[in-house]
């Protein structure tokens, strides 16, 4: 069976300790779950599973936040939920799992997405307990070196000869593109406003820094290396947010009178060096294009997660894509990176961009902890 996307939504992305910080992640997830079925015009009782990405599965995000979100949304108790962790790519992986399950005939209707409230459950919270995720055998294999994403981002800049000016110019471009998209209302349809416990309505992404310049970024102190190039201004923002996509078989979409938007043409997942960690989008892109029988020139829009500016810049150097087609409406440097919700946020952004511009193929890829990356190619099937 062919799996199709019939709806995709996201919350605004809130800054750390910003507008969404007072909202429990299960309730934040419930907002997009309910918006998804309302827009699609379906009864949530037909959803056979909710596959949800989340990285820090402790505290407010513990005990299967997917199931807790289903119940917080008021959906029937018969709807199950499962939470997955492939680090930053968790909700992109949730989509790929959902698509595979529909294609295999296990499900007809499934929701994929994810959430992260980095204000309430800070990055690294899952590693604060006694013990270490890196076993003696792991440490022996890698000569006692523990992975660090920032150090990896510095290593990428050095390996590809990227200067601080290169990275800062890319960061400024991300903010400029995101600001232009926000001003043009390009995010409005995909965003579901969130009402916080005190009645405040949050409806816009909070991380965009207007008027950012290479000169202003040049004043920021580097974080991971004294003479390095990575700092807070050319790295993704710590954020809160959720995203959701509704997946059906083509037969189910016809049965429920829902119009498909896109189908998942091809997917790939790869592993790469876990110490430099952030290079896997390069082989993931090459692999998914080969599986799809497509070339870089066939892809009308690319989304490469801006974990650090060095990641998409190295990717561009190796893949050879048109820079104008990469993150055309800004990326995580400007919009933020709510870990478990980012894959779905980026997919939603890309899908709506494809719809507006009648783009046949879009490709998304993300670097992930442990030196991994997902790559997904969407194919537009119906313009709106």
UniProtKB/TrEMBL annotation:
Domain Thiolase N-terminal as annotated: residue spans: 4-251
Broadest EC class assigned to this enzyme: transferase
PROSITE patterns linked: THIOLASE_2 (PS00737)
Domain Thiolase C-terminal, first and last residues per copy: 259-379
Keyword Acyltransferase on entry: yes
Listed EC numbers: 2.3.1.-
This protein's name: Thiolase family protein
Organism listed in the record: Rhodococcus globerulus
Lineage start: Bacteria, Bacillati, Actinomycetota, Actinomycetes, Mycobacteriales
